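Hi R.,

Here's the chain you asked about this morning:
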Amino acid sequence: CSSQSRYSGIRKVAFPTNSVGSNFGTELQPQICVAPNPATAGSANERFQGNEKWTKKQRRPPLNLLRLFPMMHRHSTTTGNSMKKTSAFDEYIAIVRRLRRECPWDRDQTHESIRSMLIEEAYEVVEAIDGKDLGALKMELGDLLLHVAMHSVMASERRAFSIDDVIRASSEKLIRRHPHVFGTTKASTAREVKANWETIKMSEGRSSILDGVPKKLPALLRAMRLQEKAAKVGFDWKDKKDVWKKVEEEVGELQHAETSGNRDRIEQELGDLFFALVNYARFLGVNPEFALTKASDKFSKRFRRVEHELRKQGKEAGKVRVEEMDRMWDEGKKQETR
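And here is the predicted structure, written out as tokens:
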């Protein structure tokens, strides 16, 4: 499927009056063009430039996808003065494309420049979930969706991949990794599903069971995920008591390192202690990332209460004795248990 055929067909897109803007003007409408099996499809550049060996049949989405998800082969096209209904998602992508053309800030962004914002938006989604605020969750999911759309549009501008490719690849992966739903594999428990999942991922070309745990994850969460992965193949402690003994062992090694004054060694031993504590949290069934977040939130709430009490008395933190702040801290703790 050549880049010319993929991006041919420039047309006017008229949106419903209740959408953002009644007419978004000229839009590039990418045609759906699907590569065969990813393992034999060649590079992304080859898929966009075309491959003469591909047949017309191969360019269509796999049969099972079309049968299970017929909407994947639907296009919003014009025929004379009539137009097929445009989905909200199509409108959304058109909005992002227009922003990339007409907004100086959006036009200047790159995959790298907005990467930290993607992480920030993901955390805001988590915050909405923790707060059980479905209204906020709806808004934050939209902000997260913007990043998926923006990165996909950026990639399509470089003829790397389109949003259609992203959705189709994800659909194919979901089907491939759920053979107990879409195939004949039997899996009656969540444990069996997870075991199949890991086996399938390894068959996809991964060299280690630990592949797939991002290095950019928060440290506590990454430690837990690494431990969980290793445990799935039997590399794990058998008794929770032994895990706690390891924690105590690491405490002793940290204290010994502290007496040496070697900063690198102290850092290493402190890291080992954190890792052991994460392991113990896993055996307790507690997510260490969530536990530390709640502890931080509790500290913040109590310290802000101390600041508030000081201001009521015309005082300021940092200009009073620590004993006075300790007293207010303890009084605040007592109020929490009443």
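One quick note: Confidence is low (pLDDT under 50) at residues 1-66, 69-83.

Cheers,
M.
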